[in-house]
Design goal:
With 308 residues, this protein is of the alpha/beta class. 43% of the residues lie in helices and 15% in strands. The chain binds ligand TUI. The site of ligand TUI has 19 residues, from strand 5 and strand 7.
Length: 308
């Protein structure tokens, strides 16, 4: 499974972990990197000291390359972007915005830059701005999403760019990896599958919701706020979706009740007030395993399928 992505990132497998806000911390990132992928720590809207500590802890747990995801809507994105330079992080991915203004300084520092993009237009802009690769993320992904699907978006981004493309959204086993390669991707980004990994530090209730989820246990909330988010179906996410549909919840009220809801899900397993961000593929995730097993099974299945 050697591609331009394994070459670029110096990893065994062309696989990066999703930079899931509040979820992706040093233990998970180090486990993925030690298993031959590239683990990511999510900057989210964390304080700079928290992210610095996470990076240092990860360095203690792995000598393999790992990265940081910068969520560009974070009020302190600029400080976190600089921290990646100061801490000599190997790889930066970005989400929820255009990272153009940070790219020159990251490149200057020797950081591999991989923006996550939901459209061909943004992908082209990122290539022009000097990105090393892009993650083309379909609407099947968990969390903040665009409208295009992985199946439609990935080949169009591949056709439009020279730099390598990583597919994301709806990939949780070797069939998804092989399909991504057939679409022209040279790597995959995996999020939801790692929620149900042993090393993932989320509340046990969150893991149980992922493992028990069926294909239809998923809902997108917040389209009317301009920040659509994909969640596991719970009483809370259904209330949000209904409130949005029937007008009983204004966008302002929506923002108010969802403030801090991601933390409540990840740390407290609070099903009454928590937002359990999760991809559509959770219906296919039925067990909790070590990251190493997840990655090795996924990659060997993909290799067999591609060699057929
Ligand atoms: O960023 C993600 N997924 C996320 S971020 C997140 S935290 C959050 N919570 C509530 C609201 C917003 C964020 C949870 N999940 N995925 C990558 C992604 N990036 N999806 C969509 C985009 C994106 C959207 C617009 C990237 C660029 C973009 O550019 C707009 C522009 O400025 O041109």
């Amino acid at each position: 499974m050697k591609t331009r992505i394994t070459e670029l990132l110096g990893c065994k497998y062309p696989l990066i972990q999703g930079g899931m806000a509040w979820v992706a911390e040093n233990t998970l990132a180090a486990a993925v990197s030690n298993a031959g992928g590239v683990g990511l720590i999510a900057g989210g809207s964390a304080p700079i000291d928290y992210l610095r500590e996470q990076i240092r802890l990860c360095k203690e747990k792995t000598d393999k390359p790992f990265g940081v995801n910068i969520m560009l809507m974070s009020p302190n994105a600029e400080d976190l972007a600089q921290l990646c330079i100061d801490e000599k992080v190997a790889v930066v991915t970005t989400g929820a915005g255009n990272p153009g203004k940070y790219i020159p300084a990251w490149k200057e520092a020797g950081i591999k830059v991989i923006p996550v993009i939901p459209s061909v237009a943004l992908a082209k802009r990122m290539e022009k701005a000097g990105a090393d690769a892009v993650v083309a993320e379909g609407t099947e992904s968990g969390g903040h999403i665009g409208e295009n699907t992985t199946m439609c978006l990935v080949p169009q981004v591949v056709d439009a760019l020279e730099i390598p493309v990583i597919a994301a959204g709806g990939i949780a086993d070797g069939r998804g990896v092989a399909a991504s390669f057939m679409l022209g991707a040279e790597g995959v980004q995996i999020g939801t599958r790692f929620l149900a990994s042993e090393e993932c530090q989320i509340h046990p209730t969150f893991k149980e919701l992922v493992v028990k989820a069926k294909d239809t246990d998923n809902v997108v909330t917040g389209r009317y706020t301009g920040h659509p988010c994909r969640n596991i179906k719970t009483k809370f996410s259904k209330m949000l979706a209904n409130g949005e549909k029937d007008g009983s919840l204004t966008p302002e009220q929506f923002e108010e009740v969802t403030l801090g809801s991601l933390r409540k899900a990840v740390q407290d397993g609070n099903v009454e007030e928590g937002s359990f961000l999760c991809g559509l593929i959770a219906g296919m995730v039925n067990d909790v395993k070590p990251c190493k097993d997840i990655i090795e099974e996924m990659m060997s299945q993909a290799e067999k399928l591609l060699n057929r």
